[in-house]
Amino acid sequence: MHFRVLVLARVCLESLIATIRTADNTRELVRLQGGAAGPYLSDGAASVPPSNPYQPSQP
Question: Does some domain include residue 20?
Answer without folding.
Answer: yes
